[in-house]
Design goal:
Blueprint (H helix, E strand, L loop, with lengths): L1 E2 L3 E4 L28 E8 L4 E7 L1 E11 L24 E11 L4 E9 L5 H15 L3 H8 L6 H10 L3 E2 L7 H14 L4 H12 L3 H18 L6 H10 L4 H12 L7 H9 L10 H12 L5 H11 L17
Antiparallel strand pairs: 1-2, 2-7, 3-4, 3-8, 5-6, 6-7
Helix pairs in contact: 4-9, 5-6, 6-8, 10-11
Length: 330
């Protein structure tokens, strides 16, 4: 897109953060071969409406700048046949290019952000532009959320942060009892779909030696593949194995999963684990919680059944015993 000051900006297709790889990006109907990157591990991510286990690409971000011919900078950077961006420059004139690449462990590269500047810009100015790009791309989720509170942010701004800064879930300090219990409740829910992957995540969390942890995380990637058997196309299975070799044991597990009925997740358990603190379910009576679940999911469970669900998940209520306090009279 055009940017003031004689610059051209381009954003990468799909996810703009290198550490998220959605399966929807794997097999686009373009006729191109599917590329699945090497994965370094599996993590639990919290989205606004769901919890999900996702594989994490083994990738690093690289930044650089240099000169290219002006004819390569077009109005639509994805289409080299579109009209040149600068109509006052000849096709062989050179302009500055500042580029971010995602470099995967197998050597595959993909463009990230790109910024093009006019030839009269000084190299010092170009270098500062690259440093700013690195700074912008290096924002953490916490920093991005903090920035939303510094101005009257729009829903589009908030959606951008949610979509581009993944909310990874890591095991909290056991002293933070509410967060610690919730994290493990979420793993129990995800184990309904991927029990062996979740078990390996727990082992990785408890493994302090970096090399041993990397080994466990690679095992988790193979387990994730096997337990995803019902959801992968044949082309995706073949592409996965090119960049993520799967051992014979996990291939046997893949076959076992395929022979079994597709696993399902309890929507009630998922709702409890996702919104236990967000919706303050931990402050409700069993009767109130039963009603809230009905209103949310249109699934009716008795208060005693809800109590058993939360207890099996290890979720503890913070509501004091006894009847709810009466509101103070005006």
């Amino acid at each position: 897109m055009r940017n003031g000051g004689g610059q051209v900006w381009s954003r990468p297709r799909g996810e703009s953060k290198a550490d998220v790889w959605c399966f929807s990006n794997m097999s686009q109907p373009t006729g191109k071969a599917i590329y699945i990157p090497p994965f370094a591990g599996v993590r639990l991510i919290e989205y606004r409406d769901r919890l999900q286990l996702v594989p994490i690409p083994d990738v690093k971000e690289v930044y650089g700048y240099g000169k290219i011919k002006a004819s390569h900078v077009t109005v639509n950077i994805a289409d080299p046949n579109s009209e040149p961006f600068w109509d006052d420059l000849g096709p062989d004139d050179e302009v500055w290019a500042v580029i971010q690449w995602f470099v995967f462990a197998d050597g595959y590269r993909e463009f990230g952000k790109r910024c093009f500047l006019r030839p009269e810009c000084s190299e010092d100015h170009v270098q500062k532009r690259m440093e700013k790009m690195q700074l912008d791309c290096g924002l953490s989720r916490e920093q991005a959320l903090t920035m939303l509170h510094l101005y009257e942010s729009s829903q589009e701004d908030r959606d951008f942060v949610e979509d581009n800064f993944p909310n990874y879930q890591f095991e909290p300090d056991p002293k933070k009892l509410d967060e610690y219990d919730l994290y493990h409740a979420r793993l129990k829910v995800m184990a309904e779909l991927s029990p062996k992957t979740v078990e390996l995540l727990k082992i990785a969390d408890a493994t302090k030696d970096p090399e041993k942890r990397r080994y466990v995380e690679r095992e988790a990637v193979q387990s994730y593949f096997a337990e995803l058997a019902h959801y992968l196309t044949e082309d995706e299975v073949l592409a996965w194995q090119k960049s993520n070799p799967v051992g014979t044991g996990w291939m046997c597990e893949f076959g076992e999963v395929m022979r079994e009925p597709r696993r399902t997740m309890s929507p009630v358990n998922h709702e409890l684990a996702l919104n236990w603190l967000h919706e303050q379910y931990n402050l409700l009576t069993e009767k109130q919680l039963s009603l809230s679940i009905w209103q949310r999911l249109l699934i009716w469970l008795t208060p005693s059944a809800i109590k058993k669900r939360r207890e099996r998940l290890g979720l503890t209520t913070k509501r004091p015993p006894g009847p709810p306090p009466k509101p103070e009279s005006q």
